[in-house]
Amino acid sequence: MTRRTPRLSRLRRAAPEGRAGRPPETRGARPRRRGTQPKVVALGGGMGLSASLAALRRITGDLTAVVTVADDGGSSGRLRDELGVLPPGDLRKALAALCGDDDWGQTWARVIQHRFQSQGDLHEHAVGNLLIVALWEQLGDHVLALDLVGRLLGAHGRVLPMSAVPLELEALVRGHDPERPDEIGTVRGQATVALTPGDVQSVHLLPNDPPAVPEAVAAVLDADWVVLGPGSWFSSVIPHLLVPELLDALIETKARRVLSLNLAPQPGETEGFSPQRHLEVLGRHAPKLALDVVLADEAAVPDRDSLADAAQRFGAAVELAPVARPDGSPRHDPELLAAAYDRIFRMHGRIGPWR
């Protein structure tokens, strides 16, 4: 990733200001508007992070997504294997979620999410994945390339990878082999972990001490609010806690921290999990992490006292709100989730001048 064309090299020095903007000290981000709105960082991956971003962009224009880079399946896995690049899929999904609701935003969201259907090598590749990887190869800079895609889309926020190296997820799973239900074995690869039968005991990353993207660490340290989850618990949420510099930033930041729980257990990796068990496994992976608020859908919590006890171990209060889509599917409704976040920011935060 060292090739640069003269024209694209000039963009590094003189990229035009777009809706994504740029602050004085951090390339590609928007001018900081402290005093008018909360500065929010959301961490996760896949559809869970997309749901959170689609909600958060409705209540703040100062939004940064920090995205896991351990995906090894589908189009992302093929590009990763062939070119040695970061898996672009979750980054693409985050960018699409930050697109506006106007014709421009929705058109570009559909374009970058479009997958080719063919009998050849392009089958199931997403347009956005190819665009992101092409810019990485042209610019040799993950962050600048994602900022440029964000400007093209008119994204309402910034997207950053949590690490600049492709990561591999490895899990210890009890009963992965149904014929040996008490045996603990190793399962490798995010796509495999996400669907594994058995009981996931713990996960870790390879390499086991990956470097964090400096801009991601800076964003967490400078935030007013940090939102973790929802999403695939072991393969999208917990991996952020396994990057040492990022975990240190999450522990040290003066931001308030919100953990957003899933609407239902995920078949495979969290099947049978109660809401409080999600908290318990999070605590095992990051015992020093403190939280301020745990957000859950009121209909998804059968035992409120047990959830409150689990949250209290993190120093957190529990907020229950209707955040699911009214069709009964286990998906978050962007408007309802936005209303829940907005209430949390007003009621649990330092009542900020953005109100």
Portion in helices: 25-40%
Helix/strand class:
alpha/beta
Let me know the average pLDDT. Answer: 86
Q: What fraction of the residues are assigned to beta strands by DSSP? A: 15-25%
- Distance N terminus to C terminus? 44 Å
Shape, per Cα inertia axes: globular
How many helical elements?
14
Radius of gyration (CA) equals: 20 Å
Strand order of the largest sheet: 3-2-1-7-8-9-10
Please outline the major beta sheet: 7 strands, parallel
Oligomer: single chain
Count of strand segments? 10
Order of helices and strands: HEHEHHHHHEEEHEHEHHEHEHEH
Contiguous low-pLDDT stretches (5 residues minimum) are: 1-34, 351-355
Task: Give a brief rundown of this model.
The protein has 355 residues and is an alpha/beta fold. It has 14 helices and ten strands.
List keywords for this structure.
355 residues, alpha/beta, seven-stranded parallel sheet, three-stranded antiparallel sheet, 10 strands, 39% helix, 15% strand, disordered N terminus, disordered C terminus
Task: Describe the fold and architecture.
The chain has 14 helices and 10 strands. It is an alpha/beta fold and 355 residues long. Strand 1 (39-44), helix 2 (46-56) and strand 2 form a beta-alpha-beta unit. The radius of gyration is 20 Å and the shape is globular. Residues 1-34 and 351-355 have low confidence and may be disordered.
Topology:
Elements: H1 6-14, E1 39-44, H2 46-56, E2 62-67, H3 74-83, H4 89-97, H5 103-113, H6 127-139, H7 142-153, E3 158-161, E4 168-174, E5 184-188, H8 190-194, E6 199-206, H9 214-221, E7 225-228, H10 233-237, H11 244-252, E8 256-260, H12 275-285, E9 293-297, H13 304-312, E10 317-321, H14 334-348
Helix pairs in contact: 2-4, 2-14, 4-5, 6-7, 9-11, 12-13
